[in-house]
Amino acid sequence: MKRHSAKRAAARHGKTVVRKPPAGRSAAPHSKAAARRKRGPGKTLLADAAIAKAAARAEASMRAELRNKTLLADRMAEDAVAEAEEIGMLLDEGEEESEDDPETAEEDQYFLKAPAQGPPRPRIRPAPGIAGAGDPDTAPGEAAHLFPRNLKTEYPVAVSARGLWIRDRGGKTYLDGCSGAVVCSIGHGVREVADVISKQARRLAFAHSSQFVTREAMELSARIAALAPGDMKKTGRVYLVSGGSEAIETAIKMARQYHVERGRPSKFKIISRWQSYHGSTLGALAVTGNVARRELYTPLFAATPHIAPCFCYRCPYERTFPSCDIACVDDLERVIRQEGPDSVAAFIAEPVVGATLGAVPAVDGYWQRARAICDKYDVVLIADEVMTGVGRTGRNFAVDHFKVVPDLIVAGKGLSAGYTPLGAVIARGSVAGAIQAGRGYFEHGFTYSANPLSAAIGNAVLAYIEKHGLIARAARVGKTLGKRLQDLRRHKIVGDIRGMGMMWGVEIVKSRATRDPFPPAEKVSRRLYDACLEEGLLIYPGSGTREGQDGDHFIIAPAFTITKAEIDDLLARLDRGLAQTASSLR
Fold first, then answer.
1. Where in the chain is the domain with CATH 3.40.640.10?
2. Which tens digit of pLDDT belongs to each residue from 26-57?
3. If one looks up domain 214-467 in CATH, what number appears?
4. Is the dihedral of CA 162, 165, 167, 171 positive or negative?
5. Which of 439, 452, 497, 542 shows a CA-CA span of 20 to 30 A to 128?
């Protein structure tokens, strides 16, 4: 938006345009000297006062005009204020903040610069940031029909985000320390991606994959294949869908059809691991090994064999790596033989177990042995990289750490970094070739498969990652983040810290010596989440860490663009959240 058009837009609502900082940028400088350098003495207070005064005039005018329609007036006033703030944000884009710290200045030569964050700016008018049944600021019908994740929980209402910062309706800002659900790898509000969304939506938003292919889908497939390991780079074929669960369903069906086309229709069973998470659709949930997520829907599942996870902190065999000789992977061969090799179609696993265990990487040698076992028994090896793919672990894919090429790789979150629902399955040439040589078509599909709008957004995200070297940066900054997280061991409730790249997990225990977890009734991970939320920090909590029954953990997985100052801020907030939670458990 150009400045003169922004002023006209504000004038329509009877407001004076005042320049304001973007969401996540400090409205209150850290010192008086900084204030004079950035805004000039007293300008912040004058700006806030001017907007507050303009908002009050607009609200009063609308109340007078609408008389008894006070509820509508409230909503219009809130919209007008929000528009004024957005105008201020747009006008303020492109401004560079000065940086006096030589160390940070040197870091910025190869780190992307993110807005500095300070205390929340003053409120324009009181408004709760939480949506719920008792919210006086929520108009009738505004939230009443939304079916949220938890019907007994009140959630903050997010209104804007930039970089690593999210702002709610009440004006509070949150440092996104987990990229939502380990999704937003490039940060919020990237202009290059937003511009592509607008341009593509005007040009071509939809074309059904049974009728057309599009240049956007072809380009994205090429980009994804270029990231894949080994022969997938040249012979891999990419099937595009709208998210991780759809991609897992696709991979399961693809593995099944692959065997059928080769004259082996008896192979249909998918072996997976306990304490895994592969998605919420019935096929994906059937191979999921999280007991709590499966329990309600178990009668709907086809029988799916599960084996022990590779989880050294709580080894089911009570052995220690490397003297254990990776006994857990031997379980794969045992179950294949037990089920009958002629019935087993595929083995699926996460190279780094995410939501259900809290960033637990496989030990070196596990994936190499799994590959050899699958080859021996003609079993398709599926790597679930929905959470780890596209740089999260500091490599293109987590399997790159183990120098293994799976038959199918499932990708999701990192492909679009949260800017659109997007997922993909990368099929090795032998898999796609068998289907092509057989019936010639894949008996599967979704309405939004290979959607051109989503594909264009995926291209923009991957181009941005490549342009700024963000995968290499995730590896480099991830090492720093991992080292800094070790300081949390001073809290007695911290039992284990594990992970790689920009994906780290912390397990909470009652006793560090025995590794005993807190009772599930204590809801420790939820209490910690709430404590961090109060500190303005978002973490990704989990429970059922020990055999799906008890245990608590959380994941720290910020955007790859996080700065040194933001790491300091994240750890300070997390430290206070842990201290508060530990104190409440005594």
1. 214-467
2. 344 344 444 444 444 444 444 555 555 555 55
3. 3.40.640.10
4. negative
5. 542
